[in-house]
Design a protein that fits this description.
Blueprint (H helix, E strand, L loop, with lengths): L1 H10 L3 H4 L5 E7 L2 E7 L6 E5 L20 H6 L3 E7 L9 H10 L9 E6 L1 H9 L7 E5 L16 H6 L17 E6 L4 H7 L6 E4 L12 H17 L4 H12 L9
Parallel strand pairs: 3-4, 3-5, 5-6, 6-7, 7-8
Antiparallel strand pairs: 1-2, 2-4
Helix pairs in contact: 8-9
Organism: Vibrio algivorus
InterPro entries: AB_hydrolase_fold (IPR029058)
Protein name: Cytosolic protein
């Protein structure tokens, strides 16, 4: 992939020349995953995003200006970003080519001193599974799926679990592995399966929000405002302030839910 070649050349430059060679940008497709990147400033964090359930992009939807989930958000904040978009409905970022790419990529990112990961649902699974490999420092997960390995989560009886069994859930990166990453997880404590998945991330600070999880559409306007507030704090400060969270949660709790059958 072009990104690997570009980075291999770039990382070999003297440190004082690396910044002058930025920006680096481009896109490619790795089997059933589309990746787009923009590296702009060594003094800013590098954000990884993986797309969630419900963003059911097909290969025919791709075009020169297509933005994966989370990419435009990073552009808005003028950040470095590498964004991964799954193609097709049943896709859990288990492609061997994608995994090989991530293993090579992880060795070429040493100039970026601060690395962040952000994802929800299926994207939260990918951030959790690859966090140690990518040496993420901070993560923000919204109701992540920790794994679809049925021996580890026998209580996850969603229809998506059965469909996911077509993939390898015994090999590398099939379960959460945060390494030294710190951060936050936000989920609905009344959603039993979401709660049980969240409990498999004891390293993270837990925030609970009724109506923030599977079963409620994340594009509901009120919930989207909540997401944006939390993500903005995380990106700029790598923190979510409990006082702000309490205010946002209180405002959100007063709004009706927009239900979706997930």
């Amino acid at each position: 992939m072009k990104l690997l070649y570009k980075l291999d050349e770039w990382v070999s430059l003297p440190e004082n020349e690396q910044q002058s060679r930025l920006p680096l940008s481009g896109s490619s497709q790795l089997d059933d995953v589309f990746v787009r990147y923009q590296l702009v400033d060594l003094n800013k964090p590098l954000l990884f995003t993986f797309s969630p359930s419900g963003t059911d992009v097909k290969e025919r939807d791709l075009h020169d200006n297509f933005s994966p989930w989370g990419y435009e958000l990073a552009q808005q904040y003028q950040m470095n970003v590498i964004a991964f978009q799954h193609l097709g409905i049943c896709n859990w970022f288990r492609s061997p080519n994608l995994i090989y790419f991530l293993e090579q990529l992880s060795m070429l990112l040493t100039p970026f001193k601060l690395r962040l990961g952000y994802g929800l649902s299926r994207g939260g699974f990918a951030i959790g599974a690859f966090a140690n490999l990518l040496k993420l420092d901070h993560v923000l997960l919204f109701y992540p799926v920790s794994t679809k390995n049925q021996s580890l989560v026998p209580w996850d009886d969603r229809s998506s679990t059965k469909l996911a069994q077509q993939f390898d859930w015994q090999g590398d990166y099939h379960d959460r592995d945060l390494g030294n990453a710190q951060g936050y997880i936000i989920y609905d404590p009344t959603n039993d399966i979401d709660k049980l998945h969240a409990e498999r991330y004891p390293e993270l600070t837990h925030f609970t929000v009724v109506g923030m999880g599977h079963g409620v559409h994340p594009n509901n306007l009120d919930r989207r405002d909540f997401y944006n507030q939390m993500v903005e704090q995380f990106i700029h400060h790598q923190m979510i302030y409990p006082s702000d969270f309490k205010v946002q949660n209180s405002e959100l709790s007063s709004k009706p839910l927009g239900k979706k059958n997930w």
